[in-house]
Amino acid sequence: MPLALLALAIGAFGIGTTEFVIMGLLPEVAAAYGVTIPTAGLLVTGYALGVVLGAPLMTVLGTRISRKRMLMLLMVLFVAGNVLSALAPTFGVMLAGRVVASLAHGAFFGIGAVVAASLVAPRKKAGAIALMFTGLTVANVVGVPLGTLIGQSAGWRATFLLVAGLGVLGLVGIAALVPEQPRDGGIRLRHELAALRDVQVLLAMAMTVLGFGGVFAAITYITPMMTRTAGFADSSVTWLLMLLGLGMVAGNLIGGRFADRRLMPLLYGTLGALTVVLALFTLTAHHKAAAAVTIALIGALGFATVPPLQKRVLDQAAAAPTLASALNIGAFNLGNALAAWLGGLVIAAGYGYTAPNWVGAALAGSALVLALVSGALERRRTPSPSSSPPSSPDRAVPRPAAGVRAKGEVPARTR
Question: According to its record, what are the GO cellular component terms (predicted)?
Answer without folding.
Answer: plasma membrane
